[in-house]
TrEMBL record, chains A, B, C, D:
Protein name in the entry: Adenylosuccinate lyase
Lyase in keyword set: yes
Family of this protein: Belongs to the lyase 1 family. Adenylosuccinate lyase subfamily.
Top-tier EC class: lyase
Organismal lineage: Bacteria, Pseudomonadati, Pseudomonadota, Alphaproteobacteria, Acetobacterales
Organism of this sequence: Roseomonas nitratireducens
Stretches assigned to the Adenylosuccinate lyase C-terminal domain: 357-442
Length: 445, 445, 445, 445
């Protein structure tokens, strides 16, 4: 992922040095397990750990280059690493990797990295959820117009909008927790996964020490349906980001102006037009969501490996595992900051809510008419007539409010007089169940 | 979905009549709930049910056409349906849909349909799992070569291969169960989801009767992250199908011939070449998997609806909800039948396993040499030398088995004599842990 | 594709009967070619044509079912068709399909169908281009605000907006023409494409009669990169549809109201809210665009068939070839109708353009200041200051126009007085090059 | 893109310094154009070029960091760059970027970069085409079995296989040339694309100097359908790579062994199994193809920008423009090297071709029987019977060749005796048209 969209903590998970350190840890733990069951000498395991651990811990850029140089000859990354480690460990290095195959190391390492990445993403989501909850509570009763199809529908509150996004990200968090469990498995089963030359107890030992589950049946590789499910979970979270970002983009439109991304002192919105303040963060998040969604496509194609394994998944994962997690981590944190600092304009929300002459209350009048005995079809026509008359005259000298247009309609006023209409359109009814919904989303309190 | 890939039971879930029947059930239940809390007269709910139920139950193609005709005028599908129902119910029809909006009906109906579709798919998976288990048990100890990169690696058993696929489909089943729970929610919250004109108790009542959970916060629509997660789950299952189909395609290759799709009496493999027996079912499944994966892409784009809802998701779902579930249902059942009837050739498996002169035991020799004191690097080189010599002479007059080539290498024979080599390569070692893996996958017994 | 989004003319291309008629035509033409070079008796070709043509022309649903019944035994669609044809042709039927393989028929038929579908789509685009041109000409000089990031930027005209979409669809048309040429090839090369038993002259003859190019090298199948490119071209056109649909959705927002989809007498916008007039066509088009884009994904996966061919592409194409072309055909015609009838509100456009107190002219002031000697950075700061002051006071008692705020700034008024400002902000400058752009898009006149 | 899959020449196109140098060139050319038409002083343009050119040419990592630092304050990349340039140019810098907007610079720069990337990719394809042609010529008449469905079909030549891939990559090259033309356009049209403050002659001048076409109508941005088409073209080429890579993977299978990736001295195929030689390059290419295909998905979503532009495309393109072109460049060169060094085993091809007892000639016998008067259905059954008998006895003591089984069938031998059968199955017929196909693909000679 380009530096622009990368945060150091997530990048660090995917660095070559981090990967090599995990590789060593897997090999050292496996050696210890083998020593404990007598497959290799106890001394060998001890020496591997004692000499290997500091060597692995101190891996530098130069060391990475040295390993790369060995790989250029062997054309095999794990062998290159083992060869380089052996240079520091000495003859006992021959007891490393006994009965194992490179996938045991690679796939278990990837599991550790993906689990760590998932942990970061879950923490990101926690921060986002906290921000959304705070703003939702703050605006629990801030009236604003609810829109369907981009058209004013009925009143809602800004807090309710945020509560909906909170619930969606809470679901996304649950999906990430499930996805983490999917990928956090350890396989040390040797070639084609039969444990022919490595005891299953080694796998159990390493899994336990690394906090992973044992992969029940690996075919040399950990099956890639797990990873596909993981990247799909990221894609759904990314799409939730896009939904909230799109909301902000809409609210910041010049004609709407109900909310606005924080505009920093010194910030310039456009190289040409000094008046511009643009929702560039939300737009950026929209693009990042597209990227993360796109990464799910090759992840799904990775599932159908040939026979016990092929290595076509590898190039895909070398790219998308860091790219998707780094981009999503960045996007979540950017979104959190954006929502924390979002400037909200309740007065403008109120003005927009009133701007269509009251037609947003049309349903309640329709219901009152049917309750008063009119057929649904007739009531619909009468209310639609009054609403359209209101709407079409907006901003013209002939403008007349929805209430007045209703009263001017004989079929309506025959059933509902002014006070009855006012009762039907009482705005308190719109918010009567806000607390119910908040309780559902945020629990009691 | 084209008829060719459709089974009646799944198609039925998505028929117009089925949809209208669910719509009616939602409206009738909602009316009953409203009557029970006094929003509408009790008689109205009774009459809606009594007159409406038989009308809905008997919806014919002609009725569907009649509703379509109304829709051509109103340009609104739910209003068209309500109008048509009202024709049979009479004046009390005005108490239907009180305070509700069309999404309440549409989205709750979709939830019912998706839950039913998921149930069918889960049953399909159960049948597939049973078939895979039966064949796995049958071939638990049928030796065959394990392949990585398409190259012979080490021995495994055909049962182990199937156990791996069983475990993958069991995970797919768990994901479908989770996905079903994601989408099986009921929303009856009225315009923009505020319950302004419909009591939350109505939603609770309908949800309970339909076996759905209450949607905690709907914004007029049930949020589409749920559906995206559902279609992603289908896509991962489809990819698992492709993995097994690809295995069968490989095993049926002319050069491999280890297994074969059942060839029916009367079947013709090619219009031109009478000798052909092709793995056409597996290839068909590979294509179906691509389709189902493809449907996840627009499902993910559907998440970011505008504000409280727009209707861009609708055209997507009208197509992919039936198409993805029908195609996956068909694919699962086709795969089950194919696996049940798969012809397996153990003799050919044994012949292939032996065909490379024994080099599939190279790792065990490598380990024996390191255990005997040789460095890993030297041992690797010696064994690689013997293996390559074996491989390259295959089928030539100079052909010599791996064992003989090893013994002919002084550095090897200095450490391992014939009996030691035989002990290292003892094929019983390859299958020592098959039972362990079977227990992990299938449990005890 | 579901009937809702299908037009008869495009559906007809993909009907079973249509396919069988093309199959027969290919076989009959091939027989004639073979007769002309002496491979089969001349009489045979004549009888095949004479007896077969009426049989093929009259294929009924019952015939399709009869062919299906044969396929259930042979499990091969082309053999089933040939067997059914043979029943009507008699012994000379044995001279049909000589040296050919089913792919020769299937792939050449698909080429004919895709070419026909492309022709319809190109005609659809021509209708859309005409509609866009007419509306663009009508609104060539209708001022409206141009928006970047959803924020008012500078004035433009509504005609210019439409000119941009016209140019995009003209590019889409060119891509479809290219895509049609990609797929309109004929392959009659027999098993594995070697012409071992069919003379290349047969291919040339059939290609010529069907208006197709000869496929230079087919490997039994026409290579699927051609089809992938075709579906990608559809996906790009679909995305252009989404761009225009999104524009209309924005313009119809309650706060914007610059344009509106035609609202039919009798139409109902919402089952709950009689006041609603929603941009449902544009939203529908947005969803259809997602679908068509989604179909490109499996088309791309279809390219890598195994060896000389496998049949995994077939199930994909049976679905996406009709679905993608039918959906796109429907979408293009819907979009054309929508644009023809789009209600445009120039007064509202003018009002919106003025609604931000004149800040949309900020760049021109910036430039005037730099021309008057101020540094770009200082000018930017001064203009930004005046614009933000204007913006933030909008709708408040302290509201003051951008011009006044500029004049109140000493650094500005030191360089530009009122008349100079007015000259800088002269709106005629905004539209000085509209004709230039129109000439580029629509040519002279 | 990760360094592992990056080549320096393609990476260089996308470096920050390269981008800034193109930005400067655009600004300097625009200034020169403005000076030539009198919009800015001639001296200003001269000074911008004289002072700016060396500054831009020498941009170092430290300079990039300095620009980044300015961007952190302005939160605008182009303004940051202009500010940094102004520090070196002095007061005349205020005449840079007059009437332009950042998109003018960004999009025209992207066009330059994409055109350069396309040029590299086209050169890569030329190298690949040369390699494929050379190997195709070398193996023009090397017999090998053609396979459909992975099953032996009829003889072909290895050269013919390669000719098919050559033709596919030649089409890919043509698509890249078209895609290059799509994106190689220049837009300098100012805010919302109206040329309100910048003369169209500036655009024409810059376009000419940069070798770009003028964008007929830009809406501040160059429309993204162009870029979507570009990335789709890359995706189709990537899929062609996968098809050839898949072929090599199949040919290298242990049971097939007809071709093999070059195995370097010192190379190690597996950390566990010294006997392994795996087609790792082809598998790697398969994964890279998935990546490049995946990048087309967000590119298609980028098309529907809001109004005259939003910036959601930007984050997508910052990632996929380099990633897709770098990955494809790497893949093409890797494939070229792989094909140049591919080890081909004609003897093994011949052995495989003969391995099924001659059933690969079944069609020719079928045709001979129909020519001799048997109905197609009867002939099919007879030949199928003989072929299946041959096939099923393969490798058993009862094995009997296809020819013998045919002669043993009374219905066959009644029409065709031994010499007639031999004439029908004459292998020379299989290759009679190889030259025809080669001429089609490679032209005369």
């Amino acid at each position: 992922m380009v530096p622009r969209y990368s945060r150091p903590q997530m990048e660090a998970i995917w660095s070559p040095a981090a990967r090599y350190r995990i590789w060593f840890e897997i090999e050292a733990l496996a050696a210890e397990a083998m020593a404990s069951i007598g497959t290799i000498p106890a001394d060998a395991a001890r020496i591997i750990r004692e000499k290997g651990a500091p060597r692995a811990a101190a891996i530098s850029d130069a060391d990475v280059a040295a390993i790369d140089a060995i790989e250029r000859e062997t054309r095999h990354d794990v062998i290159a690493f083992l060869t380089w480690m052996a240079q520091g460990i000495g003859p006992e290095a021959r007891f490393m990797h006994q009965g194992m195959t490179s996938s045991d190391v690679l796939d278990t390492c990837l599991a550790v990295q993906m689990a760590r990445a998932a942990d970061l993403l879950i923490a990101d989501l926690d921060a986002l959820l906290a921000a959304l909850k705070a703003r939702a509570m703050e605006h629990r009763m801030t009236p604003t117009v609810g829109r369907s199809h981009g058209i004013h529908a009925e009143p809602t509150t800004f807090g309710l909008k945020l509560a909906g996004h909170h619930a969606e990200f809470a679901r996304g968090r649950a999906r990430l927790v499930a996805a983490r469990a999917e990928v956090a498995t350890c396989a040390i089963s040797g070639p084609v996964g039969t444990f022919a030359s490595v005891d299953p107890r080694v796998e159990a030992f390493v899994a336990d020490r690394l906090g992973l589950a044992v992969e029940p049946v690996s075919t040399q590789v950990i099956p890639r349906d797990r990873h596909a499910a993981f990247f799909c979970a990221l894609a759904v979270v990314a799409s939730a980001i896009e939904r909230l970002a799109t909301e902000v983009r809409h609210l910041q439109r010049s004609e709407v102006r109900e909310a606005e991304e924080f505009f920093h002192p010194g910030q310039k919105g456009s190289s040409a037009m000094p008046h511009k303040r643009n929702p560039v963060l939300s737009e950026n998040l929209t693009g990042l969501a597209r990227l993360v969604r796109g990464y799910a496509v090759p992840a799904l194609e990775n599932v159908a490996l040939w026979h016990e394994r092929d290595i076509s998944h590898s190039s895909v994962e070398r790219v998308i595992a860091p790219d998707a997690t780094i981009a999503l981590d960045f996007a979540l944190m950017r979104l959190t900051g954006m929502m924390e600092k979002l400037t909200v304009y309740p007065a403008r929300m109120a003005a927009n809510l009133e701007s269509l002459g009251g037609v947003v209350h049309s349903q309640k009048v329709l219901l009152a008419l049917t309750q008063a005995g009119m057929s649904r079809e007739d009531a619909y026509r009468a209310v639609q007539r009054a609403a359209m008359a209101t709407w079409e005259a907006l901003g013209t000298p002939a403008a007349r409010g929805f209430r007045d247009n209703l009263l001017a309609d004989a079929t309506v006023s025959a059933l509902l007089d002014g006070p009855a209409l006012d009762a039907a359109m009482d705005p308190r009814r719109d918010f009567a169940h806000v607390d119910t919904i908040f309780r559902r989303v945020f629990g009691e309190g």
